From TrEMBL:
The keyword Cell division does not apply. Its main location: cytoplasm. Its EC number is 6.1.1.20. One of its GO terms (molecular function) is transferase activity. Gene3D superfamilies: Bira Bifunctional Protein, Domain 2. The lineage of its organism: Bacteria, Bacillati, Bacillota, Clostridia, Eubacteriales. This is Phenylalanine--tRNA ligase alpha subunit. PROSITE patterns: AA_TRNA_LIGASE_II. InterPro entries: aa-tRNA-synth_II, aa-tRNA-synth_II/BPL/LPL, Phe-tRNA-synth_IIc_asu, Phe-tRNA_ligase_II_N, Phe_tRNA_ligase_alpha1_bac, Phenylalanyl-tRNA_Synthase, tRNA-bd_arm. Its cofactor is Mg(2+). Residues 69-96 form a coiled coil. The keyword Magnesium applies.
Length: 339
């Protein structure tokens, strides 16, 4: 019997060393220590023993039970910590790693400026209208009082599709289209792309953007033109902004004026940013020429109006002190991320 007990202990320990999961371990506990287990079966035979043998075997049986129990518990702990270790290894989430930053896009500086200009004019009751970029000679030049061979055309050489169809050189074409389609009062701005056959440099590009403005009503004067454009400039460049209206000539306005902004760098003294002028030219404007009104079926004796054309690149470059126009088209993230 002593031998039997020792065999049970030995085989229990051997089986335990092979166990690799908790479920099998529990089965072993039942097999060796359970009510119908191997140890119990032997103890049931204790009655057959002599009075001297009984306490000896009893003691041994208790020791074997204790040993097996201890071995079971130890193996159980071992399996548990192994399982935990595996679980941690399998888990790839490392909360100490730095997070992945999501890059958020941002508006291009030209779009930011355009949106602000639109906001100012929408606030004054203007509509935003668009016109075609592929335009006829009529709308781009002829109807703007620039007949064929007019010298003013020289400054706006462009890409011709044929003799009468071209890429528009100015958004002023939309003035004519609007006056043909709408009755006064008219208050519109028209942003869009324009084209000229210019070589690319720091201040020129064959494609750039303008914002055209047109107001036609009874009793519109140069004072309205000045007030409107001054307000726009203050909104774009700040309340302290100073502008000046300088006499100029455009075939489709009379009188005409260019609008300059006092150099924000030197405040009118002259520096390298304003080419020593103290002022930076921003846009062309004027009172719509009576002949242009008449061509569009608007009676110049009853109605008058003003118009202007702003270079979007130019006012954007001024606002952000950008000294090379090409930066606006290169889509270099190092540049664009600064806005
Ligand atoms: N079209 C002119 C240009 O491209 C800008 C301009 C001047 C537009 C006077 C106008 C205007 O509407 O009245 O340089």
């Amino acid at each position: 019997m002593k031998e039997q007990l020792q065999n049970i202990e030995a085989s229990a320990k051997e089986e335990l060393s092979k166990v690799s999961d908790i479920k099998t371990l529990e089965d072993l506990r039942v097999r060796f220590l359970g009510k119908k287990g191997e140890l119990t079966a032997i103890l049931k035979q204790m009655g057959k023993l002599s009075a001297e043998e009984r306490p000896v075997i009893g003691q041994l049986a208790n020791k074997v039970r204790g040993d097996i129990e201890a071995a079971l518990t130890a193996r159980r702990d071992e399996l548990k910590s192994k399982a935990e270790e595996m679980r941690l290894k399998a888990e790839t989430l490392d909360v100490t790693l730095p997070g992945k930053k999501q890059k958020i896009g941002r508006a291009h500086p030209l779009d930011v400026t355009l949106e602000q200009v639109e906001e100012v004019f929408l606030g004054m009751g203007f509509d935003i209208v668009e016109g075609p970029e592929v335009e006829t000679d009529h709308y781009c030049f002829e109807a703007l009082n620039m007949p064929k061979h007019h010298p003013a055309r020289d400054t706006q050489d462009t890409f011709y599709i044929n003799e009468n169809v071209l890429l528009r050189t100015q958004t002023s074409s939309v003035q004519i289209r609007t006056m043909e389609n709408r009755k006064p009062p008219i208050r519109i701005i028209s942003p869009g792309r324009v084209y000229r056959s210019d070589a690319v440099d720091a201040t020129h590009s064959p494609l750039f953007h303008q914002i055209e403005g047109l107001v036609i009503d009874k009793g519109i004067t140069m004072a309205d033109l000045k007030g409107t454009l001054e307000l726009l400039m203050k909104r774009l460049y700040g309340e302290e902004t100073q502008v000046r209206f300088r006499p100029h000539h455009f075939p489709y306005t009379e009188p005409s004026a260019e609008v300059d902004l006092m150099c924000f760098n030197c405040h009118g003294k002259g520096c390298s940013m304003c080419k020593q002028e103290g002022w930076v030219e921003l846009l062309g404007s004027g009172m719509v020429h009576p002949k242009v009104l008449e061509e569009c079926g608007i009676d110049p004796e009853v109605y008058s109006g003003f118009a202007f054309g702003i270079g979007l690149e130019r006012i954007t470059m001024g606002r952000y002190s950008i000294n090379d126009m090409r930066l606006l088209y290169e889509n270099d993230m190092r540049f664009l991320e600064q806005f």
